[in-house]
Amino acid sequence: MTSSITRRRALQTGAAAALLTAAPRMAFAADPVIKLRVLETTDLHVNVMPYDYYRDAADDTVGLARTATLVKAARAEAKNSMLFDNGDLIQGSPLGDFVAYRRGMKKGDVHPMVAAMNTLNYDCGTLGNHEFNYGLEYLQNALGTAKFPLVCANVVKADGETLLKPWLLLDREFVDEAGAKHKLKVGVIGFVPPQIVQWDKAHLDNKATTLDIVDAANKHVPDLKKAGADIVVALCHSGIAGGERKGGEENAALHLAKVEGIDVIFTGHQHFVFPGGKEFANIPGVDVQKGTLHGKPAVMAGFWGSHLGLVDLELVKAGNTWKVANFSTEARPIYDRVDRKIVPKVESEAAVVAAVQGDHDGALKYVREPVGTTSVPIHSYFSLVADDASVKIVAEAQAWYVADLLKTTPYKDLPLLSAAAPFKAGGRGGPNYFTEIKPGPLAIKDMADIYIYPNTVRAVKVTGAQVREWLERSAGIYNQIDVAKGGEQNLINDKFPAYNFDVIAGVQYKIDPTQASRYDDNGKVVAPDAHRIKDLTYNGKPVTDDQVFIVATNNYRAGGGGNFPGADGKTIVFEAPDLTRDAIMRFIIERKEVAPKADGSWSLVVPPSNVTTIFTTGPNAAAYQPAGIKIEKMGDAPEGFIKYRVVG
Length: 648
Known about the structure:
This protein has 648 residues and is an alpha/beta fold. 22% of the residues lie in helices and 29% in strands. The longest helix is centred in the middle third of the chain and has 18 residues.
């Protein structure tokens, strides 16, 4: 197979091109012109090798080893180039867990993600929210051997200083189109979602706080320009979202684009691709074709190494200043999908593979270690439409763990519920992004397959009214089905992440998708008279608003992640030191054999027969039939998915 790459560009103009239109190109003929290519990786999540540790199989859709080949080719095409990373490096795959929990990470040790990146001569990077999952000491040790600097402007330590340098000036020499050399100062500034103080409260309390992304930019970008930056690149580990700015946004890249002095924005966090992507269509200020945010060039390079982001800048010198006169943006993939099959576009870069081979082998040995057995299949193919064993085993393990630890506390006699969500449910992860564990031995890799995040166990004390509203928020994953309209309608709201679809075990209820969602995608009440949750009961009796429950959940949800009623950090009554994944593993070890059963504790209210309610799932779903709901296969769907309809 060839490693050559076909360039598919989206040439664009935006505000910069308007300048060229207003002034004839010949006016710049005597001025130096530099063509600079800036490159982005983002959300690598310790995916270095093209390998899926959960399936224990090769995977051509992931891996910095493949992205590195795109980097090499992109550099060869340009006279001048720079490479940046946009965060979420050290957590997110079993390779990362192997290092954190088995191999260890002392000061001076080289993290495999860093070892791989050090072979590519990155110019600079920033932090992602998942950098904080293992604590500040681990973060510092893991990134301490990086041969490239990192910046972050909106994480502030208890002493008032930023955790990292907020910005840097990189002195670089570039060659113009006439062959002359010029020294430029490239300013780089970084940002992370301010919600990290909620998501990793246990690690950051009394140690660090965060600033709003735009406020931090307004504070530091003028200093960056005053220090002599010729151009400014923003490394924004934050996504693209519309709406009025209120401050504290998790996805603030569009608002950041309005900050004067920033020339290029690298985005991430959302695991989407930009330019392109239906997720960003019709957002004022966003041009998905040209790849601009309020006229400024921007890219989001997918996730797990799936893409390389490119921004080609044409810099023109006028007097003593350099201006962006034109630009183009692109997100280059490491694979294509042809006839529903993955076709790799590049091979792995040998130096990257060699840098992590030892840790990769260690991770494989680690994830294959057995812990117990299951007598039933555990899969997530229908986890968004029916009660599901892959979610139920998490809920059971959490409840078992919390019940044991609360038995000597004042909460021991309160009814105990358990909230869990499906993590691997297709979506942007693709048609193979599902949990599927066949009956038989369960290994550590299966624990990571069932529960992919390094969350810790929490317990919250809530009322029956809050339980109901918690479920209403969760039910936002469904589009409203229009009975009057009839016909074929998509059930699942693609913008709603599956990890926010909490199922609460211990109560019984139905969800009616013909009703409007009470909450929008950000957790704000938008339809106060709407009620999707029906027949909510506990032990066969209706749940009353003033009943009191303990809910076992995780630190992300209990700390406010997803903006769920009853889970804002103020209702926590117990904080466990253990990972949810470890609680699941202990549960299985004690049981020796498990048989998680989807017992129909929740179900969908099926719309009338004039509506064809459809959803998509993975090809392997055909081997299974969900409990409590009737479905019918309808045929192939885009991107390798299979389309089903809900029958009853």
